[in-house]
Amino acid sequence: MQRAQEPPFVLTVDVEPDWGIRGDQAVRDVLPRFCRLLDRYGTRATFFVVASLLDTCAGSLRQITERHEVASHGLTHRRLDRLPEREVERELRESRERLEDRLRISVTGFRAPFLRPAGDWFEKLAAAGYGYDSSMGSVWPSRRNVRPERWRIERMGKVAEVPVTTLRTGLVPFSLTYLRLLAPVGERLVSPAARTMFLHLHELADPPLAAVLRPPLRWVLRRRVGEEAWRMMERILGRVAPRAITCRELVEAERGRIS
């Protein structure tokens, strides 16, 4: 049972094409095992899904909807800040429509690929029918990532923003990537006040998945991936599982306190 002093926690998973390959091996091979792991800990999560993966992985993606939340991660996983405005609007609108139509669900959340939103962001999200976003922050160490003790959901017009939070360093995002890169000390930097975490399925895949990438990105993505990353996730889930909810549930729970 969740203790009163422990705030709710959201585990978020970016479901996207495999890095450097544009394939879907991680979705087909990792996703079923990851869902079983979450079931074992009684944990619910939010999966930000690239809608184009429905063309090849619809069956795998449907299993998410049985217990978890599906939100949008764009239509094609292109950086939105580099696209013409009409293409950005299409990425937002069509990704939600495809996910809702193929999976028979309601999609209310969005995360920009690479955490790179476009201009007039919240107006575009509202026009496309989204109720919350989780794109404010950086995949790199940055002051744009919110320290756990200062973290809160904010109202941006009609859209609630669920920002990225950090490890105890105050700059480094709380993600599986940095737990791997900073191992064995990374897990000690997780703050008890942390409210969100993000990861990618390909981090749990076998190391050869990153072999086609150029250095230094190849070295970053291959460090402690596969079974070592699975063990990290087991330990993290052991700490947060009793208080884990979905992004949508968190936004609803915080509705009265969102400023």
Uncertain segments of ≥5 residues (pLDDT<50)?
none
Give me the Rg, rounded: 17 Å
CATH architecture call: Alpha-Beta Barrel
Find the count of extended strands (DSSP E, 2+ residues): 9
User: How many H/I helices?
Assistant: 8
The CATH superfamily bears the name: Glycoside hydrolase/deacetylase
Number of domains: 1
CATH class term: Alpha Beta
Report on the structure:
This protein has 259 residues and is α/β, with parallel strands linked by helices. It has one domain (9-257): TIM Barrel. Helix content is 33%, strand content 12%. The protein contains 8 helices and 9 strands. Strands 1, 2, 3, 8 and 9 form a 5-stranded parallel β-sheet that branches. Helix 1 links the parallel strand 1 and strand 2. Helix 2 (54-62) packs across helix 3. The longest helix is centred in the middle third of the chain and has 19 residues, at 85-103. The protein is globular and about 45 Å long. The two termini are 29 Å apart.
